[in-house]
Amino acid sequence: MARLSILSVLFFAAASLSAPNYGKNNNPPCRFAPLYSQDNVLEHPRDFAQDFLYWEGHFHQNNVGYNTANAMTYDGTLLDPTTGLATEKHPFSAASKELQHSTDNSGTITQSIHIMLLAHALDGDADAARFLAPNQPKKAAQQLAFQIMQTKLNTYLTFNATYPGFGGFLPWFLADKTMLTPTLDWVNRVPALDNGELIWAVYAAVQVLGESSQKEWKDLANGWQRWLDYTKKNAARVFYADAGKVCAVTTIKDQALPVGDARQSYKCEGSGTLNDPYEGELFMWWLYFFGGLSNANKQALLAVKRPQLVRKEYQMGNIGPITVQEGFWFSAHEQWKLLELPYLSIPLVQRLFLNAERVRTCNSAIQHIPGMFASVNNSTDSSGQIIGYISDAGIPSISNQTTFELDVVTPYSVFPVMLFDRGVAFAWWLDMAKGKKMQNPYGSTESTRVDGTAVSSFVSWDSKITTVVANLGGVAEFAASKMKRDGIYDEFIDVTQREYGMKFSQPLNGERQPLCLPTATVPDAGLVDYTQCSKGS
Ligand SMILES: *[C@@H]1O[C@H](CO)[C@@H](O)[C@H](O)[C@H]1NC(C)=O
Ligand SMILES: *[C@@H]1O[C@H](CO)[C@@H](O)[C@H](O)[C@H]1NC(C)=O
Ligand SMILES: *[C@@H]1O[C@H](CO)[C@@H](O)[C@H](O)[C@H]1NC(C)=O
Ligand SMILES: *[C@@H]1O[C@H](CO)[C@@H](O)[C@H](O)[C@H]1NC(C)=O
Q1: Ligand 2 atom 12: residue of nearest CA
Q2: Residues 267, 250: contact at Cβ < 8 Å?
Q3: Closest ligand 1 atom number to CA of residue 376
Q4: Where is the signal peptide (predicted)?
């Protein structure tokens, strides 16, 4: 009897060797998701993160996620539908619409993700190091991040010297040559939202660099600070129309002329204005604090946004009512501002955004959707090309928009959940990653159809590294420290508290609802895992 139980203990120990060994594996297998159960990640989220970071980090390599020559990000890379390896660049012709999806063009938004990540690496964060330089000496990731930030600054300054009409801001650009050029469809044009995301990421990185006692680091902090100051000087000239109106996209008379040249001019493109209460707010704050606007204009900035901040109640089946801020589509990317500025330091806002994640998780759980929705690239077709972009993914009943496409889920939909509960966020990430082809040699795959019939054989900063940055906690804390030094922190808190307080003065509903866990898995519809990232490869 006694022998038997010893045997069964031994047997149990042997069996558990093939199960995940909770982050202690220096080189976890590429296809690690199926090795974990939901309970595993709920119990060991920090350990699960080690495997997650290790493989997402494979995206951060030359010619895939970025260009080491200029330290600039590439937008993303198509994958071979069979092997999962990155395919050749330039899969598209130069027609402007198609250029949007070219693998060597890059958005300013991806710069913001990159810099948020680097800020944590500079700070000496072990998880950022696991992403950037796993299995290397402790200082390696910090040094790499420092070099990248140095090269990046040179690239920005060269771009500014060549195309001074941008005023220091960035358009969409081609990053494959050492010197950046605007993509064909962004010649003489510059977007506000993307630059708002970029600027506050740099702001956070400057905080980290500036805290160092090393001269080199201080010099680099000062170099970036000069770039930030230059964008402050030009923010209103380039993007502010009048009476609270901010151009969503500005048309530049001539990108080669300096901002102050007598022949230079700026005007809003069409009627598009930046007045959303989501991530577009980041640029608004730059103008508000540093744009040199009169108090009347600052108040106008807030006033034009106010109508878009709307209270909504979510209700479905026995879930709800849960009070949330109305979404545009309620896509996960709309919560981006939480990564960059200290919104969650305000108790009301923290409670409201936690409610949003109650809704996001429970909406999928109650409908047995194997994942969650966010704007994302559609599947790739039989020739390996992306079919289209699905902007209108989210939660209809609590959105401003009325038409939706709800047939594709994406791993990055978990990033806002990550800011509140790592375990639950990873449970959803795992649920999607377990789908066929949802892991590849660069970590997670862009998206999968909910019926399991197709995936997007593509990898991008947006669909992958947002989750990594959220896992690191975003950079709001770094930003907050610098905001205090710059004397703008209290005003940020007061104004945000006041604006949200106006619309959410009644008690919030639904705060007792726990976050929900997945209730369905992506069906096996016959897809085969990538050969370079399959069990046993
Ligand atoms: C989808 O593709 C576009 C264009 O290549 C890219 O900018 C974006 O990051 C991709 N992913 C998401 C989630 O938007
Ligand atoms: C950007 O270029 C302009 C025009 O050459 C120059 O005056 C300015 O100092 C540059 N900004 C930075 C941050 O170097
Ligand atoms: C996404 O792909 C599916 C399947 O081909 C198609 O039915 C749908 O119209 C596509 N949507 C977009 C926005 O590309
Ligand atoms: C969406 O927002 C706009 C701008 O605030 C508003 O005019 C419109 O009525 C909203 N639509 C819905 C369906 O809520």
Answers
A1: 227
A2: yes
A3: 13
A4: 1-18
